[in-house]
Amino acid sequence: MNPKRTMCAILAASMLTTGVVLTQSTATASAQTTATPVSAASTENMPVSGSGNIADGNILHCFDWTFNDIKAELPNIAAAGFTSVQTSPIQGQSDPGAWYWLYQPTHLNLQANSLGGRDELASLCAEADKYGIKVIVDVVFNHLAGAHEKIDPAFTDSQYWHNSGLNSEHNNVDWTNRWQITHCDLGMPDLNSEHEVIQQKALAYANDLKSIGVDGIRWDAAKHIGLPSEGTHFWDTVAGCGLWMYGEILDGPLSFKEEDQGQVQHAASLMNEYTKYISVTDSKYGDVVTGTLTGGNVPEGYGVWSARNVSDAKLVYWAESHDTYSNKKGWTKNVDQNVIDRSYAIVASRKNTPALYLSRPFAKGENDIQGGQKGSTHYADKEVSEINKFKNANLGKADYYATSNGCAVITRQGGGAVLVKASGSGHVDVPNGGKYAKPGTYTDHVSGNTFTVTADTISGDIGNTGIAVLYEGGGTIDTSTDTSTNQNTDTGTVVPGGSVNIYFDNSSYNWSSVYCYIYTDTGENAKWPGVKMEKDSATGLYKLNADAFKNGNAMFSDGNNDAGKRYPADQQPGLPIGGKSKIFGASNSWSDTDDNKQTESDKPSETDTSTETTTDTGTSTDTGTSTDTATSTETDTATQVDVLMGDANQDGKVSLRDASLVLKAAVKKTELTGAAFAAGDVDSNGQITAADSLAIQRYDIGYPSDTIGTKVKKAV
What is the DSSP letter of 700? Predict the structure, then answer.
């Protein structure tokens, strides 16, 4: 709980979200697909089961509800497609009344409060099991109530408290300093989370909750509890309970400036350390999405921390939280519920990442919102519930995010689509992102309107909610001309036609271990840092088979989140495999290799550059052919024309749309020629690379450039 919550800007770096390709398209309909009707009627009023995994479904935040109220509402919650519920804390409260007293608990164990007691919570868990719904309990272990005479006497001794003299209420905390963040008071005395007694008490509480049927924990103020690398063993201790857990990390583990790459990498490394033990909130992304929709636009990017290589499977999204609504300066309390619903539709319809839906209190004033008072049941309305059912129905299917004509489009490979207008309603013709959604004629589960999906486009009338949800609800879908499943072979299935292997020459790096992380549009070979490579005794090289991800992108590390032992660097795209066996050699070289002839003498060295492609600067001085760049068509007799550098889509301005187009060209999902190529090649090295895309993104968010945004004469 952090009362000093702030709005954050849209981050262009989110375009590089692992496993997601952004598109900007105004593609017109291609009606070459035979359409077959799909009925929504068979699942209109029925819940859609999830996997039983909390991380695979969405969570209803029953903020301030009593346990008995949640229990009574379970049939409706299940029918609305939620697979988990989250309660407020049950650790006693020093004063009755306002909601925030629940976040100033008196005990470090289960104590009855305005929500109910142990028996009521146990009864809720037992009843929830009948519906396949998981129960998550909010837990506060960063601080206790301010007055020591009100708290458990066992923890009044000074050894159990931080005594830094830093207090967020006094504005004397340096939010770029992790020690201060983890040792400051948040208006209440801060518990000494380095103390083994506190750690063991937290583990005992988690195990007690588990014993009465609780399935998960949300750790309040998790950013204020340190990590093992910072000398605190709280998280590795509580992870021993075996429950699914996520931590509230508002904005990030520390404040940083986007232009300071050292700070950015430090923040990302801290987030990745948290995710070794728990999932974490991506509150920045929630602010971006809801803030953008409030302004009448749809967000360009998809995820914020996932763009910095934090696994999206370890993130939790929301359109708003109890902090953004209930605090004195909670900025979403005056945001229209329909805007929140549109925002939720975007964040809650993707693969892997669970999303939290807040049951809004009926009061708005900080002191008027009371603990134990049931909030809104709007969660059961179609525009919300059908998003949950869509997610459950498309379990495990890759997602793809696109924007077009003021509409966000989330498609699921071999499944359906969610369409969200920035504002209003009406007819849309938008791209079928990645060709993922199955062609056919769909009945929108929200409005009942008819939508036509072809291999290329999705068209129809979005109703007055601004949300359309298309998925199989009975009937059949014609797949005779469906090309959606032919766009990627990287689905985890070994493909015929010879093995593709990745080799790593460790002789010049001397890493203690070598990990290879491979990602594609449809998945990853393992969660970061990937799969540990084994040393091949015949060659002395580290080796990993990549048949299942032969068209993916590879990244290497020592597995310990050491920024100096990782390539490519943070926020840089992986190295393209391109369907061929590859070797990573000295000087960050990345080149093709013949598996059948791979011997010690074939290992690249500092002086062997005949077939190497150096990718760390976006340029190459070798005589080989780069496998991750678009090819220039420039000739000696080419015409000189005026080109606006960075304007790859030739619309007369430089924006994120250009960066997206350039990134697609760099990974061979499209081709740029003529003036478009010249404009996209912002470093003028004759190639289109991810470095060009990143440079345009940086320019768009305010970084100065000597070339981008200026007109120059170039040969086309």
Answer: H
Report the half-sphere exposure of 179 (CA within 13 A, side-chain side).
Answer: 4
For the record, the structure tokens of 413 come out as: 């490979």
pLDDT in tens, 268-298: 999 999 999 999 999 999 999 999 999 999 9
Token reading at 433: 């992102």
Q: For residues 455 and 92, what is the distance between their CA atoms, to the nearest angstrom? A: 56
Phi, psi of 116 (to 5 degrees): 135, -170
CB 188, CB 143: distance < 8 Å: yes
Rounded Cα–Cα distance for residues 412 and 415 (Å)? 5
Buried-state track 427-462, b at ≥16 Cβ within 10 A, e below 16: ebbbbbbbbbbbbbbbbbbbbeeebbbbbbbbbbeb
What is the Cβ-side half-sphere exposure of residue 342, based on CA atoms within 13 angstroms?
34
pLDDT of 478 > 80? The answer is no
Residue 51: both structure tokens together: 């996997």
Alpha-carbon span 45 to 515, nearest angstrom: 47
Sign, CA dihedral 695-701-703-708, equals positive
Beta strand 399-404 with 23-24: parallel, antiparallel or unpaired? parallel
Q: What value does the mean pLDDT of the chain take?
A: 82
Length of the chain: 716
Report the run of H or E that residue 183 belongs to, with start and end: helix 178-183
**Band (516; pLDDT cuts 50, 70, 90):** very high
What gap in Å lies between CA 133 and CA 58, rounded to an integer?
A: 10
**For residues 674 and 632, what is the distance between their CA atoms, to the nearest angstrom?**
8
